Each structure stands twice: as C-alpha cells, then as structure tokens.
Amino acid sequence: MSYKAINAYQKDSLKQQLVNADPHKLTLMLMSGAIDRLAYAKGAIDRTDLVAKSEYLSKATAIIINLRDTVDIDVSPEFGSNIVALYNYMLELINQANIENSTSEISDVIGLLAPIRDAWASIPKSEIESAYQSKSA
C-alpha cells in the first residue's frame, strides 16, 4: 500500500471521527493534536529542518489558540482565567522555542499540556453527559 493511500485513509478516518465527535471528544483530539505537533517540531529542530519546525509550531500554536479561545470563563471565572493564562504562557514558550530553535521550551509546553489532556480524558462519561444536559437546560 502506498503512502498516498495510507494518508488518504487516515484523513478519511479523521474526518469521520470529527463528524461523530462531541465537544468533549473534539477538545481531547485538539489537545492530542497539539502535543503531536509539538513532538514533531522537536524532531524537526533536531534534524535542523527549519521549514518543518515552523509548520509544526504554527499548527500547535493555532490549536492552543483555539483551545484558549473556547474556554467558557462564565462556568468558573477563577479556573477559566487561570487556564487562559496557562494557554497564553504555552504560546509564549512556543514563540520562544521558534525564535531560539530550542526543544526545551517545547518539552515544557508538552509537560504542561499532557496532564491537562490526561485529566480531560479521565472525565467519566456520566459526568460529561450530565454537564451537557445541565448546559442545554
């Protein structure tokens, strides 16, 4: 099977996941996607592939901006403000890593984002459903 066929299959699979995903699943996919792009950027820096580094960091930045901009501060103002500030800090670290071609800042961002993703993934399905029901009521 060719790489082109594999890529087409993966894109179709991703599109299907997106169509069927609820907001919780979408957020989880975004967090995982950001971590993946950051890891790819680290590899690009190690290979001194500056074009790939820029592409991956740009994609990770766009994802984190999206995550930051979708925080519902009204639900919990203190938590919402803190998570927005954390996302802004991650964006600063990514920018610094891009300028300095440094993997340490990227590792720091992954270290901050991975526990959030893991906590998000561990939310029980019953709690997710309860939150959606109360939100729509």
UniProtKB/TrEMBL annotation:
Keyword Chaperone: yes
Gene Ontology BP annotations: bacterial-type flagellum assembly; bacterial-type flagellum-dependent cell motility
Location within or outside the cell: Cytoplasm, Cytosol
Keywords: Bacterial flagellum biogenesis, Cell projection, Chaperone, Cilium, Cytoplasm, Flagellum
Coiled coil region boundaries: none
Name of one Pfam family that matches: FliS
The keyword Chaperone is assigned to this record: yes
Gene Ontology CC: cytosol
Gene3D superfamilies: Flagellar protein FliS
PANTHER family registered for this protein in UniProt: FLAGELLAR SECRETION CHAPERONE FLIS
UniProt cross-references to NCBIfam families, sorted A to Z: fliS
Family named by the database record: Belongs to the FliS family.
Name of the protein: Flagellar secretion chaperone FliS
Species per Swiss-Prot/TrEMBL record: Opacimonas viscosa
